[in-house]
TrEMBL record:
It comes from Plebeiibacterium sediminum. ATP binds at residue 333. A motif ('HIGH' region) lies at residues 14-24. One of its GO terms (cellular component) is cytosol. Homodimer. Is required not only for elongation of protein synthesis but also for the initiation of all mRNA translation through initiator tRNA(fMet) aminoacylation. The gene is metG. It is found in: Cytoplasm. The lineage of its organism: Bacteria, Pseudomonadati, Bacteroidota, Bacteroidia, Marinilabiliales. It catalyses: tRNA(Met) + L-methionine + ATP = L-methionyl-tRNA(Met) + AMP + diphosphate. This is Methionine--tRNA ligase. Its cofactor is Zn(2+). A motif ('KMSKS' region) lies at residues 330-334. Zn(2+) binds at residues 146, 149, 159, 162.
């Protein structure tokens, strides 16, 4: 056990260019809220800090597309997100945003402190510049072909097809998103955080001192550290964000990855004048709840920032989750493939706890997991209704039927089964507590439901409705035990199913209870008045689920229709430009998968000129053994590129259909290798 006096919990700041969906909830907010509610029930000093991330290029792009200002975009979505969280029962102590005056001041001061201490490297670098728009282009303002997998829609910072991190200058055939023109390279000055300087500290702090971190978190950190850390720019050329607070930085703002985590600090400042107690007192435990896409920022980059500043606590744990998919497909905001929280709250009124339960029970804690509407229905009907709701309802109904709604005293006939059932309450409570302490929320909610299963089985096995006429003393015992299980259940449910817990506590007329009351077998004294029963959960019918499936199918159909629409023609080029491309027919002689990649094949191709190696991102569509001997079109005068340690000398031409499947561009009959494509 640790000796911390208080806990500060932060949650990843959702990006304010769209609403929150179930992937966000499962990965970050449901587990964080469960954990904080648990600590509060134990009487601990804990804060839950959240807010909207309101800077960065995606917001400026959305504003540009809609013809409004970035502030208009963030105001709209911050309001939607904040309201959705409130209605869903996420109990933030403060839900702030990164466009507040406090945040601008805090972020500026943090940068200036590091700047004055000489913690940054200042250097010029090559960056793309749009001569038509007369501005430098941030990474997301540039698209082009990924040098690793051939995806033509890769961004300047990352290819979303193969997941590889990129520099904009790595892109093949880069194009400005703003004007559609081909950008030019110019020099620009930026400030960099030298992560390599902090590598020895990070090796010890993470790899030696925090081996207890979740395997997915520890593993990703180790991979980054083992590859060797590089300096990372903390500023960028943009007009939306926190201005870089030093001379000679006109037109430059803090990079959003540097700016956003400081939002945790600025939000705490807004909340309490004692903010330093939560950020700098060594008796405070700092926890970051995030998704796996934020692991590097919260485990390597932000701790390096805090370490460089020198006065802040470092995170004690970062219990990050993996991704949640939807009906077998990756959740995508751009394709509208998501279950949006604000829409769920409208379609399933007063059923927040059903979604909380399903997301916690199916949380992607160690690997990506899948949400399906059929599973949602099954968990509600077969678990919440048939087990938890059924037990509670029977216990309260029978109490009213036999004892006028008052808790009976323990009968004179008590069997071992009754004692064992009461003793099992504490066993289950301890398992839940142990799981929560280790951030195992799936395990914890399963154990919570085991208390409902215990009660359900107890009533089914004892059958008081059969004994009432022949053994009244035994029935008193049975109903007393059942009500104590019910009372404990109403408390144990609270972190997971807060709305239902309040409803149940009102039914059994129980108040002023907390975690320390769990395990007690006299929470409801003899004579305690039980209120009338209400259904805790309602069965969800097939037609309700079909409505949601139909909505997703409509989205899928619309996406497929959009995909079938040919992309607009690119900007005209001259005949001379075209003749510069030397495209030949080649024959694949050898093919093998590139180690530690999912999409790359290493090909040996006879071009008629020579035999050369080409790395191509086609492994999802072609097996190596199936393509040997195939003829392909290859651009032979493309400058060589190093891909995963292999020098790739050319590019295979591929066609991409409406479903994103890649097919070879090849001659209709065999032709001599080296034949030119004109």
């Amino acid at each position: 056990m640790d000796n911390f006096k208080r806990t500060l919990v932060t949650t990843a700041l959702p990006y304010a260019n769209g609403p929150v969906h179930i992937g966000h909830l499962a990965g970050v907010y449901v587990p964080a809220d469960i954990y904080v509610r648990y600590l509060r029930m134990k009487g601990e000093d804990v804060l839950l800090i959240g807010g909207s991330d309101e800077h960065g290029v995606p917001i400026t792009l959305k504003a540009k597309n809609e013809g409004v200002t970035p502030q208009d975009i963030v105001d709209r979505y911050h309001g939607i997100i904040k309201k959705s969280f409130q209605e869903f029962g996420i109990t933030f102590d403060i839900y702030s945003r990164t466009t507040t005056e406090t945040h601008y001041k805090t972020a500026s001061e943090f940068f200036k402190t590091l700047y004055d201490k000489g913690e940054f490297i200042e250097k010029e670098s090559d960056q793309y510049y749009d001569e038509e728009a007369k501005q430098f282009l941030a990474d997301r303002y540039i698209t082009g072909t990924c040098p690793h997998c051939g995806n033509e829609g890769a961004y300047g910072d990352q290819c979303e097809s193969c997941g590889t991190s990129l520099n904009a200058t790595d892109l093949i055939n880069p194009v400005s998103v703003i004007s559609g023109s081909v950008p030019v390279v110019r020099k620009t000055k930026h400030w960099y955080l030298p992560l390599d300087k902090h590598e020895p500290f990070l090796k010890k702090w993470i790899l030696e001192d925090h081996k207890e971190w979740k395997a997915n978190v520890y593993g990703q950190c180790k991979s980054w550290i083992d590859q060797g850390l590089q300096p990372r720019a903390v500023s960028r050329d943009l007009d939306w964000g926190v201005p870089v607070p030093v001379d000679g930085a006109d037109g430059k703002v803090l990079y959003v990855w540097f700016d956003a985590p400081i939002g945790y600090i600025s939000a705490t400042k807004e909340l309490t004048p004692e903010w330093e107690k939560y950020w700098k007192d060594k008796e405070t435990k700092l926890l970051h709840f995030i998704g796996k896409d934020n692991i590097v920022f919260h485990c390597i980059v932000f701790p390096s920032m805090l370490k460089a500043e020198g006065s802040f606590n470092l995170p004690e744990n970062v219990p990050a989750n993996e991704f949640l998919n939807l009906e077998g497909d990756k959740i995508s905001t751009s394709r509208n493939w998501a279950v949006w929280l604000h829409e769920y709250l409208e379609d399933f009124k007063d059923q927040q706890d059903v979604l909380r339960y399903v997301l916690a029970a199916n949380a992607p804690e160690t690997k990506d997991n899948d949400f399906t509407w059929k599973d949602f229905q099954a968990r509600n009907n077969n678990e919440l209704v048939a087990i938890l709701g059924n037990f509670v309802n029977r216990a309260i109904v029978l109490t009213h039927k036999y004892y006028d709604g008052k808790t009976p005293e323990m009968g004179s006939v008590v069997e071992d089964f009754d004692k064992q059932s009461l003793e099992e309450i504490s066993v289950i409570v301890n398992k839940v507590q142990s799981s929560l302490d280790q951030y195992r929320f799936r395990e914890a909610i399963k154990e919570m439901m085991n208390l409902a299963r215990l009660g359900n089985k107890y009533l089914a096995d004892t059958e008081p409705w059969k004994l009432i006429k022949t053994d009244e003393e035994r029935v008193k015992t049975i109903m007393y035990v059942s009500l104590q299980i019910t009372a404990n259940l109403s408390v144990l449910m609270e972190p997971f199913l807060p709305f239902s817990a309040v409803k149940l506590q009102n039914m059994i007329n129980l108040s002023d209870v907390n975690w320390s009351d769990l395990g007690k077998t006299d929470l409801l004294k003899a004579g305690h008045v039980i209120n009338k029963p209400e259904l805790l959960f309602a069965k969800i019918e097939d037609e309700t689920i079909q409505t949601q499936l139909d909505k997703l199918q409509a989205t899928k159909t619309a996406n497929e229709a959009a995909a079938k629409t040919a992309a607009p023609a690119k900007e005209n080029i001259s005949f001379d430009d075209f003749t510069k491309m030397d495209i030949r027919i080649g024959t694949i002689l050898e093919a093998e998968k590139v180690a530690k990649t999912k999409k790359l094949l290493k090909l040996l191709i006879d071009t008629g000129i020579d035999k050369r190696t080409v790395v191509s991102g086609i492994a999802e569509y072609y097996k190596p053994e199936d393509i040997i001997g195939k003829q392909v079109s290859i651009l032979v005068n493309l400058a060589p590129r190093n891909i995963k340690g292999i020098e790739s000398q050319g590019m295979i031409l591929m066609g991409e259909d409406a479903n994103g499947e890649l097919v070879f561009v090849q001659p209709s009959k065999d032709i001599k290798a080296g034949s030119e494509v004109r």
